[in-house]
Prior knowledge:
Strand content: 35-45%
Number of helices: 3
Largest sheet: 20 strands, parallel
Radius of gyration: 31 Å
Amino acid sequence: xxxxxxxxxxxxxxxxxxxxxxxxxxxxxxxxxEIKLLDAVNAGRAADYRSSFASADLLAQGDHWxxxxxxxxxxxxxxxxxxxxxxxxxxxxxxIAGARIAGELQLASVQIPYPLELIGCRVENxxxxxRAKLDFLNLSGSHIGRMNGESLELSSSVFxxxxxxxxxxxxxxxxxxxxxLSCIGGRFDHPQHLALDAGGAIVHGHVLLSxxxxxxxxxxxxxxxxxxxxYCAHSLIENPGFKALTIDxxxxxxDVILSNGFKARGEVSAAGATINxxxxxxxxxxxxxxxxxxxxxxxxxGSDALLGNWFYxxxxxRFCDAVIRGNLRCVxxxxxxxxxxxxxxxxxxxxxxxHMHTRFLANGAVQLxxxxxxxxxxxxGGSFQNTRGVAISLRGAKxxxxxxxxxxxxxxxxxxxxxxxxxxxICSEGRFExxxxxxxSANNARIASNVFFNxxxxxxGTVQLENTTVGGEIDCADGTFEQAGKGTIxxxxxxxxxxxxxx
Length: 503
């Protein structure tokens, strides 16, 4: 009985409060739509202005919604600032669905200890949340212009999801987000400018740019700190000729995933970023012809970097001075930058192996000068094309495993291993083509074990091992050397054993 009496007192109190609000709003001349909002906030329920006819809720027609669906920004601010007597928002917060918000929603520096949700709303003027403190922000399905949220603090997440549209910059610079920054299925339209700016933001959860997200303009996460994933899948970010996605100097506690149909038109820039786990770029397309498709110079990756299985880059992929604490796997990846550098890892450190085999394709130079590699470089069955140029450059490299350019490997252009340190060089069944030039050069290299130019090896151009130290044998049995220039094969070193090629 005591529970029933308590519930009755609560209901009677809520009813009295609503009556008090109604008396107050009559004096203040609020519109019927705003009175509906006040009643909903006081009762802890959503103020839903959506029609029973789906066609009437099309946000493209939001400018034509009438007074029955129009709420002034001043009324919303009055609720938040607690300037309306007898109005007491519940922990459910303010939830508005299907309304037109008239006027600038100026909420800079306010403190809102409850959720603010504008779902499927049309917001005509800028939303200003600079330095505001909120529990939760949900703009899912809403159409807005500009949002200013610099140094915004959120106890929970921000949702810009499911049909959300912004036609100007969404600024979350130096924001602090206690949960996720979720842009699933959103649209950001600000071509050749910043579309979503979260530079310097701290996000304790995930950054979700996925599942139908489209961006025309730049997404900026420079210097951001993310406690979860950066997840970009089934989405498009396009800013042709400029930077599309920027994560320079950002820190990610988990994986960075650009996969499952993710497309970027413009540069993806990750210079100096720290990724504690995987960089996973399988099944994605990065297009920035004439520039860098992926610029990751100085990146630190705590595990593997995967750029294979239908990865496609049009433009250079750069990992100069990078640290990859696992393997670099490019199996089934395509790197397309004709006449330029397709993939460059100068001075990088890879603790595991580099896999460029089995459907790997480079159209442009692969440059690994002065790299330090803890495992092997495996190019078996890979295709490297840079006709009349250098197909693979491995100058001054330190490789603690083998270099395997065999079993269907094909290079059109020079393969240069000068001054490198290698355990074993395996070129059996490899094809090296650079007519009138150097097909394969390992001058001044130190090869701890064997060199295999055998079992179907074929070169079209000179093969040079000037001043090279070979700890084991050089096996040329059943190898073919054509158009060798000054000699079939030029040696300046004395291996322990040399099996001559056929005459």
